[in-house]
């Protein structure tokens, strides 16, 4: 994202952008990131997250709606490392992550509600490329997401 801040973007574009009210914590090594949204909805099962982040992610941000659960982590250092290897800009997890010390060292934007050392199930239960909603924002595949230390902005669907 360089020098453009979410606050400046909002000042310029106003309600053309959706502003997420969820107060995420920054876990990744990139404090700001942007990209085209792809989505996953899952609950305490990260198999779809792992599969998605092992695909080419150049210019993309994965938005994971884990239902806000902090019961188990949907991403850890190995999956996040795969995301870096495959060029992902960032991951937004409406749930928990783990291996937070290692995540800080990765060139990846990583936002989550919190952390939990417990692993998730790996059964592949969930949905991919669907509209997910939290914090007053509808995150739809193909929209653009901007994130920095002030928060998250998302373009509106056409």
UniProtKB/TrEMBL annotation:
- Give GO MF terms, alphabetically: 4-hydroxy-4-methyl-2-oxoglutarate aldolase activity; metal ion binding; oxaloacetate decarboxylase activity; ribonuclease inhibitor activity
Name the Pfam families for this protein: RraA-like (PF03737)
Provide the cofactor list for this protein.
Mg(2+); a divalent metal cation
Question: What reaction does this enzyme carry out catalytically?
Answer: 4-hydroxy-4-methyl-2-oxoglutarate = 2 pyruvate; oxaloacetate + H(+) = pyruvate + CO2
Tell me the residue numbers annotated for binding Mg(2+): 99
Q: What is its EC number?
A: 4.1.1.112, 4.1.3.17
Family, similarity comment: Belongs to the class II aldolase/RraA-like family.
Query: Can you state the subunit structure given in the record?
Result: Homotrimer.
Function, as annotated: Catalyzes the aldol cleavage of 4-hydroxy-4-methyl-2-oxoglutarate (HMG) into 2 molecules of pyruvate. Also contains a secondary oxaloacetate (OAA) decarboxylase activity due to the common pyruvate enolate transition state formed following C-C bond cleavage in the retro-aldol and decarboxylation reactions.
The name of this protein is: 4-hydroxy-4-methyl-2-oxoglutarate aldolase
